[in-house]
Each structure stands twice: as structure tokens, then as C-alpha cells.
Amino acid sequence: MEQKTVLTLEEIYQPIQDRLPAVESKILEILTTANPLSSEVIHYFFKAKGKFLRPALVLFGASFGKHLPESAVLTAAALEIFHSATLIHDDIIDSAYLRRNLPTVHAKWNPQVAVLVGDYLHDKAIGAIFDTKSEQVIAAFLQTAGIVCDGEILELNEKNNFNLKEETYFTIIERKTAALLATCLESGAILGGLEIERALSLKRFGTYFGMAFQIMDDCLDFMGQENEFGKTLGADLQAGVLTLPLIRLIALLDERGKAEIFSKVKSGLDSAQLGDLVLLLREHGAIDYSIQKAREFTDRAALELSVFSDTPTRRSLEALLRYVVERNR
Amino acid sequence: MEQKTVLTLEEIYQPIQDRLPAVESKILEILTTANPLSSEVIHYFFKAKGKFLRPALVLFGASFGKHLPESAVLTAAALEIFHSATLIHDDIIDSAYLRRNLPTVHAKWNPQVAVLVGDYLHDKAIGAIFDTKSEQVIAAFLQTAGIVCDGEILELNEKNNFNLKEETYFTIIERKTAALLATCLESGAILGGLEIERALSLKRFGTYFGMAFQIMDDCLDFMGQENEFGKTLGADLQAGVLTLPLIRLIALLDERGKAEIFSKVKSGLDSAQLGDLVLLLREHGAIDYSIQKAREFTDRAALELSVFSDTPTRRSLEALLRYVVERNR
User: Fold this and answer.
1) Fewer CB atoms near the end CB (10 Å): N or C, chain A?
2) Minimal Cα–Cα distance from A109 to chain B, Å?
3) Entry pTM
4) Spatial separation of the C-alpha atoms in residues A11 and A56, rounded to whole Å
């Protein structure tokens, strides 16, 4: 009966649902350009709806306050644009060809277009954040942008490192994923006028939630159907990125077992070999172990909500924690 | 005897020379990171000294004022970092393997590293601009960042377009090159406390200077020795980017001549064919025509200086105009 308590994203977003269309319009407004190529790429990219998680978190953060100001909508749009810029660049870096069930920008056009349109989105996101006129939000965002990039460079530096430690993996995902999700909640809280202590609780919630979110994302890379997840299965590993399930498996194997995995991965896995690897991950409980880690983070996140009274927004954030460890896409 | 009036950059920079070391230190200070890969790439990139044109223009702009504030040094560093970020991304886009006589970042490491380190520099530059606390400078910079990117996307969109119009070429170079040089002078002027009218004169000077600078850069792509220019000869064309000399040549050729050029360029030019093309450009006066256009822009730039009294800074900017049309690297 546990399943019953897992709501859909649409249900979870209910308290802020009425503001999301304004965020969507704001995104296209910010990105309006006379440049036909940019315009084509932008409309293509945003046509495929993502989870809109970052805008939702900004709005949730703000809706703990007495009012939900227009600047929260602007910030929500800006952070989704920033996130999109990083996705477009990430897909070049990971040579991914599928995102949200559509060819990636660098696959449909070319890496050059992906570099520049990513840069353009990046610039426009920062411009929009600046338009909030909130020094705190601007400062938080600029710091986070550097951290996200730093996390991605760290990840790149650790590619094909089969001795990657869990600790380093956690540092990478905290920077590349959790930092931005934390800033979404923090920015929303600042704009909603929350006291600093409560804004910091939400920021920590965002960090823990983000860690769980990324761990589950990495588990999903080894689970489910290709079209269901909307990305290429095993894509991380094919790109040389080691994630928690594999780090755990490697820690459990003897030298011969490790050597076997290394040589297979290095020569590139075909889908049969990928299937074998997934079986091995399951046999050794590496997926379950990772999901358990994700749950530990959602437990810590849940504790941060204890300072808030039992409002629909708090209940949504709690539901989001359940969603993230149960989701299959 | 004309040659005598062409000063070296070092001579031209004399009025602001004593502040340049502070800019260099500031760049490395802004980019300090615990990330070993980022740090390695950053030190490698900035070890090869560029012309430092953008920092010099910021300082020149500021030195027309009564004082040269510390924020001008910060802005000079930030704009050089921003420019470096665009160079690192450009080199991916143009598949260039040589910059400042050293392998480019994407050639020495890989395109992935180049994408991310470019993003990192981009973020750090914006953070530094924000630290100036000057709303005008921040707004000018953010607008320009968008314009630069837009110009690059436009250029990319026009790649391999053998019917590219001069007018479109001028729009591209105004955005991708001149806009940032203009913003350097404008930002310096704002921080130096100049009246708005004088700041705008310097901004226009920067635009015209920037147009001339890019036209000459494009001419140099077909001139001189590979190692002297520090870049690959004919690199623009090999990457499908049509610049003024070729646009002019194509305008002068008959249909058969055009068709011949198209087919040669499309199949990739070897160095003998590149040599033939250079001869053809010279025979048709396409290089001279382009240099003449550059001179028209420097003439317009010079006029903008008429509102300033005859100070060492003004004389340096005038010398810079002569330098740009006479330079060979």
C-alpha cells in the first residue's frame, strides 16, 4: 500500500500550479531573440517539457512567505534557463544523443550550436537574475553557478577513474546537482521574505533532496526502459562517468572481478554486456545500496522541514521526497 | 617614413602600463580554485600572454577621468576573463588548434574540458563584474555578453554561405568583437566618473575601433607567417567562416570563377590551394579593399576623440588606431 502515498509531480505541484504557466511564458519572454537559429533551437529545447523542478522549488520556497512576489516567477524562469544551459553543455560533454525523448541539441544541430546556445541561455539567465534587483539572490546565484561548473569539471577529471571513492562522488553530485536545487529554495525563500534561519533550513533541504535526486538519477541510468526514462540507458558509464551503483559494485569485487569490469567498460559495452552488468549490480545489491543512500538523504531533508507548520507547501515538499526515491523517470 | 609613427603596443600602453600587473594578479586571484584540472588549464591559458587589449581599453577609459579607481582594475580583469572564455569556446567551434603559438585548450585537453573551463571563466567574470557594485557597468556588461553570443550564433548560422553579404558580415563582427571592446571603454569611462556624453563617445570609438580590428584580423588570416600571427593561416575559411576579403572576391568573380572557389573550399584547401587563393585575393585587390574598409572605421573612431583634450591617453588611443591597421599579428 506504500505506493498509494507516492503522488505524481502534477499533484505535488498543486500549491504552486497556478504560477507555473507564468514561468513558462517568462522563459520564452527572456529568451526572445531576432536570431533565427537561436530562436529555433530555443523553441525546440523548451517544447519538450522537463520536470520543471527548479521553478517549482523557487515557488515553493517563496510560498512559505506571506506573499509570492513577481520576482519569484522571474527567478524561477531564470534558474530553469540556467539549468537548461548546463544540460545543453552536459549533453555535448557526455555525448548523449537523447534527452526528454528527443535528440539533444548537439545531435540535432552540432556541438558548435550547442556550445553557443548554451552560452546564450547562460547569459540570459544571469541577466534575468540581475533583474530581480535582490543582492542576496544575485550573490547566491553567482556563487552557485561557479560551484555547479566546478562540480562538472571535477566529474570530468574523474572520468574513467575506476578507483573513484564514494566521498568524491558525493562531492561531485553535491556541486553539480544539489547546489542549484538548494539555491532554488533559498532564493524563493529570500524573495518570499522568510527569516534567514528558515531560508537556510530550506537550502539544506534542497541540498539533501538534491543528493537523493542525483543518486536516484544515477540508479535509473541502470534501470527501466530507454523510452520511459527519456535518456539513453547506461549513458553515464559509456561516457566514462562512474556513479554510486558501480562504485559500490567495484568496492565489493575481488581484483579479478574488477579487472574484468574495467576491460569490458574500456572497450565499450554493447547492450548484452550492459544487461550483464545490470544483473551483476543487482546480484551484489549495489542498486539497493544506492537507493538506501538516497533514502538517508531524503530522511535528513525531511528533518529540515520540522521548523515549518503543516501547510500544503510543506506537504508537497514531503511528497517530493517520497517521489524522488520512487520515481522511474 | 609612415612606419615610424606606428608604435608598439608596449609604447601605446605606456600611460596605463603601471596598472597592468595589478590586472594580471587580479585575473589569477579571481580564478583561484582548489580544482586541480581547472587550475592547470587556467595557468596554461594565461601563461601565453595575449595583447591584453580589453584590460588596456578599460584602463584608458577610466584614465580620462580624475582618478583611476580600483574597480577599473577589477573590471579590466573581469573583461579579459570573459574574453578568454569566449576564445576557449570559439576555438572548439572553429576547430582551431593553435592560439598564441600554443595548442588550444580543446586540442591539448579535449572539447569537454574546453566547454567547462570556458563556462567556469564565464561565471567568474560575471561574478567579478558584479563585485564592482556599479549598476551601470553590470547592466552594460550583461547586455554585451548577450550581444557577443548572438553575434557568434549569427556567424555560425552563416557558415559556408557563399552569398554572405558585406552588411551581414559587418553585423556579425560588430556583435561578436566590437561590442565588447566598446563596453571596455564605456565601463572604464563610467568607473572613472566621466560624463555620459563622453562615455558614449568612447563607446562609439570602441565600436569603430573594434570593427577595424576584426577586419584586420580577418585579413591577417590570409597574410603573413603562421608562427608570426600565432594562429593557423586560413583557419576561418577552413572552418567555413567567410570574411571580408573573400566576400569581396566573390562579389568580383563571374559565375564560373565563383563555382571554382566554392568547390575548392568545400573539398578542403591544402596549403598550395590556400596559396593560390591568397594570390587571387591579392590580384583582385580584395585584401586592399578590406584594409581600406578598416581605415574608414579607424577614421570614424578618430573623430570620436575630438571631444577630449590632447592627453597621453588620447594620444595612445590614436596610436592604437594606427597600430591596428598596420599590425601583422
Assistant:
1) N
2) 11
3) 0.89
4) 12
